[in-house]
Amino acid sequence: MFARVSQIAGVLAVAGALATPVAAKDKLVINSYGGAYEQIHRKLVIEPFMKKYDVDVQVITAYSADALAQLRAQKAAPQFDVIHFSGGQEVVAAREGLISAIKAEELSNGKDLYPFATEGLSRGEGPVHAVAAIGLLYNKDKAPKKPARWADLWDPAYKDHIVLTDLSNSYGLLGFLMLNKVKGGDIKNPDPGFDAVKGLLGSSVVVSTSPEMQQNFAQNDAWIAPYAQDYAYTLRKAGLPIEFVQGAEGTPAVYLTANLVANRPNQDLAKKFIDFSLSPEVQAGWATELRYSPTNKATKLDDTVAKEVVYGEQAVSGLMRFDPVAVDAARASLVERWKKLIAR
User: Fold this and answer.
1) Any signal peptide, and if so, which residues (predicted)?
2) What beta strand segments (E) does 76-165 contain?
3) Which helix (H) or strand (E) holds 243?
4) Are 226 and 135 in contact (CB under 8 A)?
5) Would you state the pLDDT for residue 9?
6) Which structural domains are found in the chain, ordered by start?
7) What SS3 state is found at 259?
8) How confident is residue 46, by pLDDT bands cut at 50, 70 and 90?
């Protein structure tokens, strides 16, 4: 009788254990940008974070403009916990209450970030976790000399070997705004830039996409182009002798931000994810894999990588940012005017 009671008790215990629900893992929903970027994002951030904190991270591919549109549409019940932007949309998202403010002291890596990376926190924006600097790409084997300034684009030494990028490309737009600035203009007054570019059109090629940029350096004897440091690395991997130079007048850049979405229940976990993205180890990985510049001053890079990105106090001091709200407001008119200019 005792044995039977024990057997029954054992069966009930097993049944009870089977009936007990297994606790679900915490979950985050984030966006990434697809392609090679998303592959590296998973390798450096997403998968290590899931392993460290034993959580699930769902990734939805959504580029910045689409991500902002989704946040707006889902404002009452957003699906994202962390949203990444690369086009300045965090400024708009913060103003519209779509993202929540983060205090620097809530991030263990906050104290080590360069000032430009935390400047937006006071406005409710997320921190900058990586930078794609815009400068001058040049063919070190063919160009008669190494450029040093944006103004060198008008040096006769480079005539007939210049590549310009269409303004529908973010890198091209920032490059144009820098040329306009060098010539004395600003976002509200792009005339100096367009006049200066008009003078270059007779001795340059205009491209719209990155593959076209590569084709011109590989096949069409291009020597110099305003473009991004990460793409200089892409060209070198393709076997081309291309180097990146910061123009002495300043270095505009694409600032990649990680933002805390408002009205979500697991913001503490989301902050940990953002903080993880800011660690020196992760940022060294971005620099090594894609040649993005780190925003954490504690990041250590080997000499080869350090020479190919904007790295260190002195180099970072040259970074500048055009007002993303003003740029977004002017974008359509600038692109339309550009199209008319190059169609002549």
Assistant:
1) 1-24
2) 82-85, 99-100, 128-139, 162-165
3) strand 242-245
4) yes
5) 52
6) 27-131+253-320 (3.40.190.10), 133-252+324-342 (3.40.190.10)
7) strand
8) very high
Neighbours of 329 (CB within 10 A): 12
Q: What is the largest CA-CA distance in the chain?
A: 104
For helices 210-219 and 229-237, the axis angle rounded to 10 degrees is: 50
Residues 301, 256, 102, CA angle at the centre, nearest 5°?
Answer: 100
* Cα separation, 56 vs 287, whole angstroms: 26
Is there a contact between 262 and 98 (Cβ–Cβ < 8 Å)? Answer: yes
Distances 251 to 37, 267, 316 between C-alpha atoms, Å? 22, 34, 9
Q: Are 224 and 139 in contact (CB under 8 A)?
A: yes
- Which tokens go with 175? 């490059």
pLDDT in tens, 244-299: 999 999 999 999 999 999 999 999 999 999 999 999 999 999 999 999 999 999 99
Read off the tokens for 297: 């001053």
Task: Give the model confidence (pLDDT) of 103-150 as tens digits.
Answer: 999 999 999 999 999 999 999 999 999 999 999 999 999 999 999 999
* β pairing state of 251-261 and 319-320: parallel
Task: Give the separation between CA 47 and CA 224, rounded to whole angstroms.
Answer: 38
Distances in Å between the Cα of 297 and the Cα atoms of 94, 198, 216, 304 are 26, 40, 36, 18
Length of the chain: 344
Element (H, E) at 56: strand 56-61
